[in-house]
Amino acid sequence: MIAAQLIPTPIGPLSLLSREGVLVAAGFTADPKEMYARLTPALQAEGLEVVDDLGAASEAVRAYLAGDLHALDAIPVSQPGSPTRKRLHEALREVKAGTTVSYAELAERAGLPKTAARAAGSACAQNLIAPFVPCHRVLPSSGGYGGYYYGVPVKEWLLAHESGGITYP
Fold it and tell me: Domain named Methylated-DNA-[protein]-cysteine S-methyltransferase DNA binding: which ranges (predicted)?
């Protein structure tokens, strides 16, 4: 069974989906079913149950919002993808809060050639576990914020929060 919890945040509700203590999806949506629909058919076959508390994952979100910007790093995550995509997602988790990288830099950190920037962009676009796999920390080298699955204002808020520009009680 996939367990889901909805957590209020200053930028809207965050849906967390967990299987046996490992996050399989997270995203800024008020309906956990939106995240559930993005899971593999095998995971969807397990069913979805909304719960009051996912424990460590929900505690990490509250700590992150309170200023412990590394709290999300300790939560185990699992998402599907090719070996290349998995390397890119692992490299994303190593980008520290308060810093950003370009798509080319992300590819390089994953041990891929700089020409793999397009693959890095695809890995960000297909990321199922935001902000735990922090694709919001990747910016285009041409400037600006680029896109974000949950909208650029959410990306801007996350980056401002991590740079100390926003405090949340």
Answer: 84-163
**Which of the four pLDDT bands, split at 50, 70 and 90, describes residue 166?**
low
Q: How far apart are CA 44 and CA 77, in angstroms?
A: 17
> What letter represents residue 83's amino acid?
P
Residue-range definition of the domain harbouring residue 143 = 83-162
Q: Tell me whether residue 167 is in a domain.
A: no
Residues 6+ apart with CB under 8 A from 123: 81, 84, 85, 88, 89, 92, 106, 135
Residue type, 98: G
From 74, 92, 119, the end of a domain falls on 74
pTM greater than 0.90 (yes/no): yes
Q: How large is the greatest C-alpha to C-alpha distance in the chain, in angstroms?
A: 44
Annotated active-site residue 135? The verdict is: yes
- Which of 16, 95, 135, 158 does the annotation list as catalytic? 135
Q: Are residues 116 and 59 in the same domain?
A: no
